[in-house]
Amino acid sequence: MSRVLVVEDEAHLAKGLRFNLEAEGHSVEVSGDGESALERLVTEKEDFDAVVLDVMLPGKDGFAVVSTLRKAHNYVPVLILTARGRPEDVLEGFAAGADDYLPKPFQLPIFLARLQGLLRRSQWLVAEKTATKSRAGNGKETATASAGGAAGSAPDSEVFSFDGKTIDFGTLELRVNGTTIQLTLMEAKLLRHLIRSQGRTVSRKSILEDVWGLHEDTDTRAIDNFIVRLRRYIEKDPSKPKHLLTVRGVGYRFLA
Fold first, then answer.
1. Which run of H or E residues covers position 176?
2. 179: in domain
3. First-last CA distance in the chain
4. Pairwise CA distance, residues 221 & 37, whole Å
5. Number of domains the chain is built from
6. Residue-level pLDDT, tens digit, the chain, 256 residues
7. Of 3, 90, 242, 247, whose CB is crowded by the most CB atoms within 10 A?
């Protein structure tokens, strides 16, 4: 049984979500605003398997809540519910650290399917981290695909290494110089998308469609902001990148 926190200020919607989630066998708690949700998640460090988070909340909005969560190194999967369905709003949610979004109004079966996907991903992450610790304890490190490996093999590996850095897509972790950085799901998806096309230019349109599932024309500055953040993680000098290169007027290219 999964434990889910619903953060929703509209009482009738919160009640409906709780009823349907409990009917699916989940344990459900409800918070009516962002501050009380953060109190439970960050201050009291309660364990939840997923958070269903409305954007339009009194006080701290949903974007601020998920951003605060990630800054506190809490990586519980977050499904954002939003009446603001513009692509720019969706990208703002992903940039803050959300794992998925669903525009209101939504159909119940789609909501349940999206949430179940996040719960499965959470279970996989826990299992992968447990297995990684077990392998490390037995002296058996996970096989990694290096940048100099066979062509086409590295991008699809769960672990990708280049220039002294290792990205574990199974645990969403980036290891650099002995430091582990926890990536958000969308940061990892963007990196993987670029790595799979390493050496080739990836257009912003491709990123919008293939990483975020957006098919409308939108402001691509959100993508640029993601790239800036990723450069801070992997570049020795983010102002002079060697791995995440800008192709002016087109998009980006990854070089291992």
1. strand 173-176
2. yes
3. 42
4. 30
5. 2
6. 899 999 999 999 999 999 999 999 999 999 999 999 999 999 999 999 999 999 999 999 999 999 999 889 888 889 999 887 677 778 788 888 888 888 888 899 999 998 988 887 666 555 555 555 555 566 544 444 444 433 333 455 688 999 999 998 888 889 998 888 888 888 888 999 999 999 999 998 888 888 877 765 665 667 787 888 899 889 999 999 999 999 998 899 999 9
7. 90
In a shared domain, residues 175 and 248: yes
Question: Tokens standing for 99?
Answer: 């794992």
- Distances in whole angstroms, Cα of residue 227 to Cα of each of 6, 39, 110, 193, 211: 31, 31, 30, 12, 13
Please state, in angstroms and rounded to a whole number, the distance separating the CA atoms of residues 169 and 129: 11
Amino acid sitting at position 82: T
Parent domain of 246: 142-254
Compute how many other C-beta atoms are within 10 angstroms of the C-beta atom of residue 89. 18
Place of tokens 């709003």: 89
What residues pair up with 201 in beta bridges, in sequence order? 253
Joined together, the tokens standing for residue 37 give: 């949700």
Beta strand 78-82 with 100-103 is parallel
Does residue 151 share a domain with residue 108? no
Contact 227, 235 (CB under 8 A): no
The token pair that represents 62 in the structure block: 């949903």
CATH of the domain at 162: 1.10.10.10
